[in-house]
Write a structure and sequence with these properties.
By secondary structure, the protein is mostly helical. It has one domain. The protein is built from 5 helices and no strands. The protein has helices at residues 3-6, 15-34, 38-56, 65-79, 89-106. Helix 2 (15-34) runs antiparallel to helix 3 and helix 2 packs antiparallel against helix 5 (89-106). The protein is globular. The mean pLDDT is 94.
């Protein structure tokens, strides 16, 4: 879904920038879910999961892998599972918004 990013461009971003991009896709998924457009929501969360997988595989973040894997688990549970963690839309928005602000501040 992201051939340019998967081809190496993703590794040029900082962790904060990567998480901000993931957050944008999560926000899109939440938006489309609220609009009852499950196809668009699924495409957005699929993109988010692809990006988080690229982040997890980035060797620069080996020390953060546990947190990244947990984030992926929570997202998959919220959108594809039974939401066992009871993750709210507000929690996800707040979590990723912080990375968006930090990325913008660092530009």
């Amino acid at each position: 879904m992201h051939p340019t990013l998967a081809g190496g461009r993703w590794s040029t971003y900082t962790l904060v920038e990567q998480l901000a991009h993931i957050g944008s896709e999560v926000d899109r998924a939440l938006y489309w879910s609220a609009k009852n457009d499950s196809a668009s929501a699924q495409r957005a969360i699929d993109r988010a999961l692809e990006l988080i997988d690229l982040t997890i595989s980035d060797s620069r973040w080996a020390g953060r892998r546990k947190e990244l894997l947990r984030t992926r688990e929570v997202l998959a549970d919220r959108f594809y599972g039974e939401n066992e963690y009871q993750t709210t839309d507000e929690f996800l928005k707040k979590y990723f918004l912080a990375f968006g602000f930090a990325a913008a501040r660092n530009r």
